């Protein structure tokens, strides 16, 4: 289950402004990946290239053996059935109530009857905590509610690939925690491939199996969570530890004078790697790895204090005990 996305030599420019180039990496099937980067580095543009809403200037996007930029309109229509996409602005139809917005893909892409559609729509609305908002228009609900309505709509076709552009922006911290758990559980249930764009370092550090960073017109790094979070690459270290010191400045890139001011201090020690979010009810997930596995295989020492949860349990040493016999992850 889930489909791999392989991006090869991708370049996108608008006029003379190159957004990014030479982007090549594979988003593994059935795993949760997150893409981060300073504002304006082209994360939303990247997602639109994956579903064929924008065409790259160069390169390939292979989804299940098909090269998206080379598909015709009718082929793209078929391809998009496999995707559930939550756009950054929610992209709800303003004149349609929330119920009809969420029902839209089912009416457009399936022959299901209204009773079946109602069952699915109400189930997804409950899942994202929107029960009771059926009759409201998008203009009558909060920004966070719009996000969750967009997410419910992205889920109704049980897609193989779920793309979510800042699903957590505009959500309060408690709802963000519920949303992250929902992603883990959905991934467990559907086995779908997830790519989530987020600015929330808290989310990025505990949710995904893989992390990527866009900066300076390219993909700086993409790989397993433990690789990225233990990295001392200056931009990666700065971004995932939310530090001021490093190459990323307020206006994206620092000028030489600013960098000279900071001197040649070595990158600070990466913060402890927390245990990854687990599926509810002690289930297992295809992309799940044993804590410390990547670090061990690559001879990298974990940052001090890693893999200890809020209750002081050590997931590195006690993994077997914590994942068997009535374990209930939070
Ligand atoms: N249709 C378009 N035509 C021209 N320029 C565009 C278009 N869409 C995006 N851009 C430009 O591409 C760049 C990247 O935009 P994008 O929205 O992908 O950034 P982002 O990384 O998603 O930022 P944020 O974190 O603020 O959402 C920006 O400079 C933007 O102005
Ligand atoms: Mg964006």
Automatic annotation (TrEMBL):
Residues 5-241 form the ABC transporter domain. Keywords: ATP-binding, Nucleotide-binding, Transport. SMART domains: AAA. It comes from the Bacteria. The keyword Chloroplast does not apply. The keyword Nucleotide-binding applies. Residues 310-321 have a biased composition (Basic and acidic residues). GO terms for molecular function: ATP binding. Residues 252-330 are annotated as: Disordered. PANTHER family: INTERMEMBRANE PHOSPHOLIPID TRANSPORT SYSTEM ATP-BINDING PROTEIN MLAF, PROTEIN TRIGALACTOSYLDIACYLGLYCEROL 3, CHLOROPLASTIC. This is ABC transporter ATP-binding protein. It comes from Actinomadura parmotrematis.
